[in-house]
Amino acid sequence: MPQYERILITGAAGRLGSELRKALAPLAGRIRLAAREPLGALAAHEEEAVFDLADMDATIAATEGCDAIVHFGGASLESPWQTILDANIRGSYHIYEGARKHGAKRVVYASSVHAIGYHEVEAQIGVDAPVRPDSLYGVSKNFVESLSRLYWDKFGIESVCLRIFSSFPEPADRRMLWSYLSFADCIRLVEASLTAPRVGHTISFGMSDNKVKTVDNRGANHLGFIPQDSSEPFRAAVEARTPVPDPARPSVKYLGGWFCELGHPDDEPKG
Ligand SMILES: NC(=O)c1ccc[n+]([C@@H]2O[C@H](COP(=O)([O-])OP(=O)(O)OC[C@H]3O[C@@H](n4cnc5c(N)ncnc54)[C@H](O)[C@@H]3O)[C@@H](O)[C@H]2O)c1
Ligand SMILES: O=C(O)[C@H]1O[C@@H](O)[C@H](O)[C@@H](O)[C@@H]1O
C-alpha cells in the first residue's frame, strides 16, 4: 500500500520537480502535478493542475484530495520583489491554506541555503541557528519556514523545510564542491521527509556527503536521511576549470555564496 492517497507536487516542470515526479510515484496512489503550463503526456497514476501560485482560489482548489504536498514551485533565484511576493510568499500562503482547508497531513517545502546565507561558512551552524537571509528570495524562504511553524503549532499540519544547498546535475563551481546535493540525494531527502513517522516541524539542510562539511545537520537526524553521493568525483575537473577565488569575498566567506554579492533586484542596472 502506498503511504499517501495523493501527493501534490508544485513546480512539477522544474529542475527538481521533474526529478521528483519520476521518483515519488511509489509513495502515493496518485500524483497531482502542478505547473504553470500543461505538461504534455501523463502516466496513468498522474494528473495535472495548471495554475499560477499567485491565484489563491486555483491553488487552494489544487490541494483538494491531497494528503501530502511537495511544494517545490516558485521563483528559484533572487527576483524582483513583485515576483517574490506573488510566487513565493503569496503562493506558499495559498498552499498552506489549501493544506489547512483540505486536510493535508504533511508538507515538504523546498527552502534554501539562502534562508541562512549570511552565516559564515566557517561557523558550522546547526538547523536552529537564527535565520540570516542573503536576498529577498531568502526572506521568502524565511517567511515560509515561519508560516509552516505556525501551521504545525496551531493547525497540526506537519512540515519539513529542506534548506537545499545546490542541487544540479553536477557541481558547477568551487562552492558547489561543498554545497552540492545530487538529484538522487535530493530524492532521498524528500522520500525521508515524506516517510519519517513523525516530523512535526522540521528544518533540514540538504547536501550530499561531500568531503568538506559546512553545516551540522544533526537536528534533522530523525528524518533518517543518509546521503549516498559526494562532489568528490567532480573535484579535479571543477578545480582545473575555475580559478581560486579571493577568500575575503562575501561569495566565499558566507554560505549564500554569490547571492551575498547581489544588489537589490529592483535597482536599475548600473552603467
Ligand atoms: N536547485 C537548487 O539548487 C535549489 C536550492 C535551494 C532551493 N531550491 C528550491 O527548490 C525549488 C525548485 O527549484 P528548481 O531548481 O527545480 O527550480 P526551477 O526554477 O527549475 O523550478 C521552479 C518551478 O516553479 C515554477 N513556478 C515559478 N513561479 C511560479 C508561479 N508563480 N506559479 C506556479 N509555478 C511557478 C516554475 O515554472 C518552475 O517549473 C524552488 O523552490 C527553489 O527555490 C532549489
Ligand atoms: O546557492 C545555490 O547554489 C542555489 O540555491 C538555490 O536556492 C537556488 O534555487 C539555486 O539556483 C542556487 O544555485
From TrEMBL:
InterPro entries: Epimerase_deHydtase, NAD(P)-bd_dom_sf
Segments forming domain NAD-dependent epimerase/dehydratase: 7-168
Keyword Iron-sulfur among record annotations: no
Record keywords, A-Z: NAD, Oxidoreductase
Residues annotated as transmembrane: none
Pfam families cross-referenced by the UniProt entry: Epimerase (PF01370)
Top-level division of the source organism's lineage: Bacteria
UniProt entry tagged with the keyword NAD: yes
Gene3D superfamilies reported for this sequence: NAD(P)-binding Rossmann-like Domain
GO molecular function: uronate dehydrogenase activity
Enzyme Commission code(s) on record: 1.1.1.203
Protein family: Belongs to the NAD(P)-dependent epimerase/dehydratase family.
Official protein name in the record: Uronate dehydrogenase
Organism: Starkeya nomas
